[in-house]
Structures
1.
Amino acid sequence: MESIKHYPKSEDTVLGFCSICGSSLYADKPQRGMVHLRLGTLFDTPSLVPQTHAFVGSKVPWYAIQDGLPEFEAASRPVLRAGVLTRPTP
């Protein structure tokens, strides 16, 4: 689409944004095979819902997480050990 422009943020990330209003639409991470969509760009409710909160060690102090999901000081990526998929302990 003509109204979507791209900005090479780094070697690993290309940002897609609206050239009319400037809204961020997605971050393309081709080396990782991932595209991070901004949820505000979706018309329907996403099929995936949050499962954890990562990097809460650097969140602003005035924001209180109150949804009961596991919280991690840093990353919360699943770890594959001996053929078993596990998550880090909160």
2.
Amino acid sequence: MESREQILKEKRLTTRLQLATTRFKDVERERIWALATAHSEGLSIRTIAKVTGLSSSRVHQLLHTDEAHQIPDSIDPRTAYVSVEREWVLRVLKRVAANLDRLSGIPFCHLNHKLS
């Protein structure tokens, strides 16, 4: 049987991995939107590849993903800011709750249901 400390440690580590995965997906999506916006504004695939350090074929692949065609209207290409959306706010609040959980020792699962 696992000790309470082991269970809490595993929960903390899995929560951290989940948060890192969510952050990575968000950044990946934002990068695809930036690539698509740059291309639609006239930058060539070669230029985009050079600036981002990606290969031209990878830029081409990313420009043909579903994400590249689902850029929210709320993005202002001049500033690259996304307006605040409920889902995003909830993700941020969950991240804050997880950080507070880590500091306080209260299991994240007790806080998680309040944010959903």
3.
Amino acid sequence: MTEEQQKTGQEMGLMAHEHPQWDDFIDRLSGPEGCNFRLAVPGNKDSLTWTCDSDGGYQLSTQILASMGLRPDEIEESMSYFHENGGCCDCEILFNVAVPLDSPEESVESGQ
């Protein structure tokens, strides 16, 4: 959120693919501040690990969205959007919502 948005109380809106800060949110959620995707054994892609409470509480996402300036009602609306689109916990937002199933990346990976 810019200083101007904070001063005027401007709405940030639902965090979704169309949101101007979507990429920043996904970067933060996948990084050390969020799920912290990393290799447990450097250089071994089979050792990929991450942090997630998996209880559907969205603790990491909620903290990140709040720090980005979203209001509580916008965060709640975003969590509903994530859940409706297969993001039932923080890491599933990255697995299921960040890259929609009909995206070019998914088609390439699945051989379609």
4.
Amino acid sequence: MDTKQEFKSHYLANKKTYTLAILLIIFFGVWTLVRETGFRVGESGLIEIQKIAAGSSVFIDGDLVEEVVSGVSTISTDVSPGNHTILVSRENFWPWTKTIEISKEDVGQSLRSLFR
């Protein structure tokens, strides 16, 4: 029996084991990705803030999301359903704040033309 035929007969005899091993590897890879990135399916909304001027800092629920260094920026971030407070601050300007509610049905809310 040549090597190719030996491999084929070995594979066919252990086909279920190989299939199970491949499925387990895929499952644990996806599980690790979800666990490490905090990815949630169907449980998040999108907040998008457009036209943020250079020098601005954007906070959502007290956490710094982004500091705009130069140019005009658009910020998009996923959030869980519920109330969220957005704060945009910039030196020599009054801070802008707004509390919004993201429901499970929301795709997102867009806040346009800040610090224009």
